[in-house]
Automatic annotation (TrEMBL):
Keywords assigned by UniProt, alphabetized: Nucleus
Protein family per UniProt: Belongs to the DDB1 family.
Pfam families reported for this sequence: Beta-prop_RSE1_1st, CPSF_A
Name the record gives this protein: DNA damage-binding protein 1
Amino acid sequence: MISDIGIDSFQFSWNLFIKFISITMNDFNSYLILFVEINNHLHSEKVYSSGLYNPFIPFSKELSHNFRNNLCFLLISKIEKVIKIVNIPILFRKRVNGHPTSFKMSFGITALNAPILISDAAIIHDFDGRQSAIIIARGSLLQFYSYNNFEGLKLRSEYKLFGEVARIVPIHHISDTQTNILLIFCDFRYSIIRYIPKENNLKTVQAGNLASSSGVPIDPPFKIAVSPASLLLQLHQQVVQYFQIVPNSLLGPPVNCSIPAKHIIDFDFLNTGDGTRFAVLTEDFSQSTKLQIYEIDTLSQTFSQRTNNTITLQTDSYAIKVIDSNSLVVFTTASAIKVTLNVASPRQRSSTIYTSHPLIKFARMDSTHFIAADMGNNLISISLQDGDLITVMRIGPINTPIALLPFDDKNLISLAQSGESSSINLMGDINHLIAETKPLMVNCGSVKKIVEVSNNEMIGICGDGFSHVIRQSLIMKELASIQVEGVDDLWIFNDEIIVSVYGQTYVLGFDGEKIIRKERYEIINNEPTICFRQISEDDFIQVTASTLSSNSTRLNLGLIIHASISDYNVGILLRNENNFTVKVFDYHFNETLSLDLDYSAEEVAINKDYLAVSSWAENIVYVYSLSNGKIVRTFSDFSSIADMKFTTDYFVVLETREHINFFSLCDESVNIRIHCDGLHYSIIPYDGNDVIISGENPILIQNLMLKGFKFPYFLKGSHSNNKFALADDSKLTICLGKGFSMTVHEDRSFENNIIDTIQIANPNKDESVRGPNFVVATRKGKSLSLYVAEHPLSNLTHVITKEEVEPYIGMASIYFNSMKFVAIIFGQHLILFELCDDNLQERSKLDLSKVPFQISAFGSKFIVAFTDEFQLYEPDVVSHSDIRLKKLTNMLTQGSTSCLSNDDEFVAVCDELQSLVLYAYDDSSNKFCENARNCIDFGLSMCRVSVDDYFCVDHCGNFFQMQIGETKNIESSDLDILSCYALGDCISSMIVFQTPKKDSEEETATKLLIGKQNSQYLEVVKFDPPEQFKLLYTEMEKEFQSLGRLSSRGHRTVLFDNYLPQCPTMYNFDLLKMYLELDENSQQIIATHSLMNVQTAKQICDSLLKLT
């Protein structure tokens, strides 16, 4: 046991051990002396034993593993007893899987939306035996569409998978009546699914792992070739894997074929029927390009190269397409070369092709005709003519596709990863083809940046006019709906809905399953209802086009054009030709006020003390006192008024677009103006001062903060006791509120292609103050425009336009000496602007020595980041108009810096080669020094600083949480990885934000929002996991399995070169949502295995999901 221990180390350790066991348990001072003695002699390695870590006792690396563990176990167990006896705080930190968790907090991650970008697609003509299916993968979402020329694509079903799909491959054995679907995932797992007609469902018939023990793995998408009998797949450099397609359209065992080359460019089967011969286009180590032919002996499972068929090609060859068993076409940048193999020396015939861009996707329309798409967004027709002639012609434009799927010999489907996907109809003969395209769908691009607008709203910028609004939203659960056109308004009355439609009033009810027609004789039904309110359990007030009525009383008033009912009274707007009159009645229909108006009026709103009248013609609102009938306040400066209401403490005016205004009834100086995008229709009272805004993008204003309302466009609505009745142009829906959660809403502007936006630095952030809050950068062609705007998605007023001669890098804003500055980088030029009177005024330009990749604000200074260093600048005010940037210092980094993030204390730098480093700034010396470092060599792509937590992501989409540890490395403190999570895809943006304080919280909660390259958003929340939850979560991971026999644990577990990092995995909160959606029997099984009842399990899930 001690043979590998140095004599000195062993002798000292043994002496310490003897000394330790001789110390009495009551002599705690002796234990402390022993701590110091050990710490002074032994160093540089942490102690791991029985899940305990003692930061005061680092042991030397020379000690054997068993000896260290045994000694440590005795030390710690003995010391714990002493500490228990003398009743002093525990000084040891528990470790989970070898890493410290000094506090109990953990992290939960949940998806806010489904992935959007398409990762692959395929068409199968006999998948279910009846009709063709278009299968689209969007990362972990698998969708099945039907298609015809009239309806286009129609979604039939979709499945959430525990894995990111890299490729979809139809496989069909010659003896099978159906085609199966091979799904290959980014982590090299695979699944084969099959439609089962008797069950009318999909079933996983084969699953496994395709990773090979030979070759270096490559990144997806993987190259694939398929024949009726076999499949070729490249997952590793210099290696292709061969699979036979066996009966029932399954895969046989893989056979590795090592290709002696520097790089495999392309490969395809030769059409021999048995799938035993294939062509490989390679680049060898002498930079020459060769075409090689391989043949497999299926009995011995060995490959042989047909050297007599090997030919050297032009070095710019990039693709091959097989014609038949003895000929193929090789594509170069300027020509298409037909190669014939059934001769002693392969014959080459070249045809010039007129395309300046490489061809990237091919669709085989018949044996001699291909349609291809190139990287320049061109659709190309390739025809193989007699006499080895190849004709190539451009037949139209196309958005770059990720899949080009032939539907028949004249129709095909082009599916783009982002942007527009379209159907293509080929018109004309083979020599004069024209492509007629028809849009099928439009997808946004990857998330480029996430910007915090407020503590409850973020904007995700995707480019090409696409943006995402991420908000906390009230989620709706639909109970029932009915087709109703022309709803003017509606109100909830107990369990009934009063609906005004086309000049009549109807009473509808809900029987628990569907909406039904009901009769109420005391309600006027032969006129449209203008306003309605329930005033007690059984009593109501109804205002129709001519009558004020209640359960027992009716009062005819003439032509009523608008009305408002408060808790105390009724305000009615009457019209007699061109004369307008406002009357106020109490609940007994006694008239308490009458005003003849000398202006045209459209709406009224009333409460206990005031009456508001709007005039759209004058774009003004007059507020009258009910005590004397005099105007006490006037409101104007509205673009146009959509609706107005009184709440408990505010008078609320909704503009048709952009804004909603809250005017305080107590303090005339308080005017809160909230930006809300889209077209608005009406205000729906919700609770106290909270209101719901109907329109294109329904929203909820709660506690004067904007939140989402998770329901599609609707015009009118009513709310009572968490029940909602909502009506659009053609449908009325009854819903229940399910609580709040973060949601993602897509916004598309055809005018503004936003590429970046930043919040203008402001030391006194007050959302109630009007004015510019953001600088927005948009691009149109080669012109880049800068705008100062109230909101990133508000109407933009032109400020500055520049020709983008040098590429736009980024911008940042600081507040310095009571001045607001914005610095923008174009190439090597750093331009400083000052914000004056809502305009950007250029103050100076600084030439940098090289091109940076990022600029950020560091307090009242700017940090400019390069790959090998970062530099610190601050404004130098020479005069009012001459303000320059002064360089304070710089800090050299590792040389491969990929991202920089900072708060007011630390600058975190993540490196492509050497993980994460923290730097601290010393104001007195104007220098940075290294404060902490993670010493694991793995490349990172992005990082963010969040108080004591440092979050970073590598290029594989693995997400890590780090903290500064108590141990030291050679340079500084250790940055320990405390938890991790496999996101499944690369990320493109990440932001730390704070959610508003809830009644049950003492302070705001810090969260993280992650934008993935497939435009899916993930929310990360910190929480303290109860012990019961841990048991429940373990059972969920065991029970839940997606289509493809895929487990959540395998999907979210981080792997470092096939080994697990020694830290816990963060919790997947999507499993909690899945549990709540299960049937009661399935919930019971999981809860029973977790040693709890279903109610407790559901309460745990609900309480944790409320954190999101």
